[in-house]
Amino acid sequence: MKNFKQILRYLKPYTVFVVFSVIFVIFEVASNVLQPKYMEQIVDDGVLQMDLDVVFKAGVMMLLVAVIGGVCGYISCVLSNIYSQRFGNSLRKTLFRKIMSLSAQQDDAYTAGSLITRMTNDTRVVTEFSSVFIQMAVKPLMLFLLGIIMVLTIDPIYGIILLVSLPVQFLIIRFFIKRSAPVFATIQKKLDRLNSFAMHIVSNNRLIKSYVRENYEAGRFDNQNRDLTSTVMNIQVFMAILNPLVMLILNTVVLAVIFIGGFQVEARMIRVGSVMAAINYSQQIMMSMMTLGGIFQYVARSKVSAERLTAVLNREPALPSGKQMIDRIDKLSLSHVSFRYPQNQDAQRNVLEDISLEVRGGECIGILGTTGSGKSTIARLLIREYDATDGQVTYNGVDVKDIDTKSLRDQVSVVFQNSDMFSASLRENITKGAVFSQEDFDTAVRSACVDEFADDLRGGYDAVISERGASLSGGQKQRVAIARALLRAPQVLVFDDCTSSLDLETEAKVLERIQTNYRDKTRIFISQRISTIMGADRIILMDDGRVVAFGSHRELFDSCELYRSIYQTQNPEGGDELE
Ligand SMILES: Nc1ncnc2c1ncn2[C@@H]1O[C@H](COP(=O)(O)OP(=O)(O)OP(=O)(O)O)[C@@H](O)[C@H]1O
């Protein structure tokens, strides 16, 4: 219930709409309750007394009240739709911002499919609940209570019939709700799983096709889809029994009222119109109870959704941003940094072990190491995607945890090996978020050699890049990502294996241009290829999460056996000598 209350707080700004929606529904209920009374009058004082004047006047009044009730019902519905849509809008917006604010570490805890299901399906469920609440809870509750009062005013004997039938109806509805509530939670989970799976398949469509796994994946999808469908169907089949059961009780009640009413009419204890009114009110009462039962289904479903929404909304940022702003970086350092990924806390070894490193502003550093040695992890710690498990990452001597995250990422850019593209034009893909002049733009695209292929695209820089950069080659995507980072002109540029898909000639050109055009920036090149990093002022050689050696290309070649052997492997011709 706590989760429910928290979600309903987003409804607060629309209280006026809620209040007016309730007021109009009160008028609608009043109209519904008055109508059997007019009917009673028409039958008893009009038809039975052969007084057409009464029939006409009461008929007109009945019609008028029905029209007013209908209009009020309509306005109430419109108002509840307005507030529920606005409520849904604000909930989705807040959730989206929250998801955006989660760190990489927290992202790992939820699949993309699960987050999307929460943002779409779960918000829809609670939004719908807020909209139907008045129609399915407030209105039937009032009809129920007023109906009972009206029946009792006609003749308390009918109260006895309700006294027997209502608890039976209540117990049946409760039984159905109790059985169905856990199934709704299961359905939500299965939907989550199916969404995640579908997203995974759609985004890896090419890979699946290239390995001719379409049928296999379609089979897996079918299994999950069938599982979801059968769960939904089973519960619907089960719930379908509820309606006829309630109708059975309802008709029994009507029969009982007719039966007792018949005797009373014969004994001249009551008039026919009153019996008809009692039948009407009994139907109203029973139907209201049924509708109230329906709202409990909504409550059960919304409770599950509210829990799933608050689970994300209440996630405090695992890495709360610091406050200190930075606009210059004169020194960055890692001091005795060890790290293991949060989801691998029980792993035997750290991914990084006791790394210490100091880089001055404007320096060029190369990080060389075998695959899985922890090079990219260093890059991730530099932009604070994760916090070091032990030790400290500092900029200008300030702990990265104390620095404003946005300001940090404005000053430190990492280009990863597989950079994602936006579904936008080539120009937008490069300029995203940057403040730049035409000269900056030209320098960035020339340095990254984007200009070499941009003109060949249909539309040039205005050519639209398809989703995830599917219309570009791997090397082209890497060049766009490099240009994007260069244009933002941060103080520290980290190139994490992002020239791996370029041919050697283009790579050499890109490296040389970056070294020339961005020499005032701190540059960190990460690679497994010596050719990429050997122009750096200093090179760190990593193996198995540790720094094995540190020095210039010349120093490492002369003093480090491992470095020399990597060099010789990558330069089989003339590898014994340093070029
Ligand atoms: N998000 C993650 N969660 C858990 N473990 C991870 C994660 N990312 C990387 N690892 C593990 O951390 C270790 C170091 O990975 P990292 O990507 O830093 O290596 P790398 O030196 O950059 O490798 P490569 O040159 O192949 O890119 C690897 O054993 C990898 O399996």
Automatic annotation (TrEMBL):
Keywords: ATP-binding, Cell membrane, Membrane, Nucleotide-binding, Transmembrane, Transmembrane helix, Transport
Signal peptide: none
Transmembrane regions listed in the UniProt entry: 12-34, 54-83, 132-151, 157-177, 237-261
Domain ABC transporter: residue ranges: 332-569
Transport as UniProt keyword: yes
SMART domains referenced in this protein's UniProt entry, alphabetically: AAA
Subcellular location field: Cell membrane
Nucleotide-binding in keyword set: yes
A GO CC annotation given for this chain: plasma membrane
Superkingdom classification of source: Bacteria
Entry's Gene Ontology molecular function annotations: ABC-type oligopeptide transporter activity; ATP binding; ATP hydrolysis activity
Official protein name in the record: ABC transporter ATP-binding protein
